[in-house]
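hey so u asked for the seq, here:
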Amino acid sequence: MPFSSTLGWLVDAACETAGADRLLAELGAHLIDDGLPLAGGALTLAVPHPLISRRTWLWRAATGEVIEGLGFAPGRPAGEPEPSPTGDAGQQWLAAIGAGQVHVTSVGPRHDGPSLSWIGPRPFTPQETDHLCQVARFAAAPLAALTARATLTTALEAYLGRRTAARVVAAPLRRGVGETIQAALLYADLRGFTALSESHPPAAVISALDAWFDRIAGAIHAFGGEVLKFIGDGLLAIFPITGEARRDACEAALRAVSAARAGMAHLDAERQQQGLPALPFGAALHVGEVLWGNIGAADRLDFTAIGPAVNLVSRLQGLCRPLQETVLVSGALAAETQVPLIALGTHALRGIATPCAVFTVSEK
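ran it, structure tokens below
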């Protein structure tokens, strides 16, 4: 049974495939064109990710459909067996679409490397199995290239955020490269963090920070924002404005901070039951123009947002403690939303020439 077209594609073109889902679908289609009876297939890759241990793509030959499954495994108890190459869900899915046995081939020398799995309408013959093993050998190079791209993307997204990571990859790595965008801004940090860090062991401080960032960053991401930077016990996030959707971005920021307050109230109740101090915080919201791009030294860059709007939101957050409010909203953002807000008057902000109209949100 000739496999020259499949092997030729793996050598000449597979490295340019857009992603693992397309590589699996195109590889399966090439195998069928070469005469191999297939009902479906699966491709599993280990990924460096804070939450995901592996990703599996499942392909159905009859429709060409590819779906993705994720494996979440931060750690296995001692003695627990290794997961199957495609995961339990993958094996069940493959078994459901074909009557034949599943053929699994590891790709490359590593035991935790990629794996390809195939199933047909009948058990594979020894000759067909040999062909599938040969295909796995030729798939090693394109899968290595795909894994390297995925590793880079995942690492950038974990440290920079999805939008910023895409921008960094697409733009030249030079200072002064960036763009001016309109965005709703959220700046938040914990109150009394210095005292907390001095009176508790480092592990407890890190645990408290992680719990706080889970609540605030999780709420930001849930409503379409992106954390640009963690700054000690604080963070800066943006809700980019696309087209004419200025109000949408501003109200998304308000909903995010409301969700964060609810999450922190629940966390504080749990901490108090454990005899731990609450984690009060302050957050400020503003909307305006920011420069989103590269700054830094000639050979060490940071991708962030700067500009008067960023300065204002950070100074506004500094009023949370003296005004005894958890959330403060600038007059500029208040003017863009229909959410009822409570006026707190006009206040001077350190380093800002023009006094700022300040609002807060209802406690209800």
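Residues 214 and 263 are 9 Å apart (CA to CA). Residues 162-361 form a domain with the Alpha-Beta Plaits fold (CATH 3.30.70.1230).
lmk if thats what u needed
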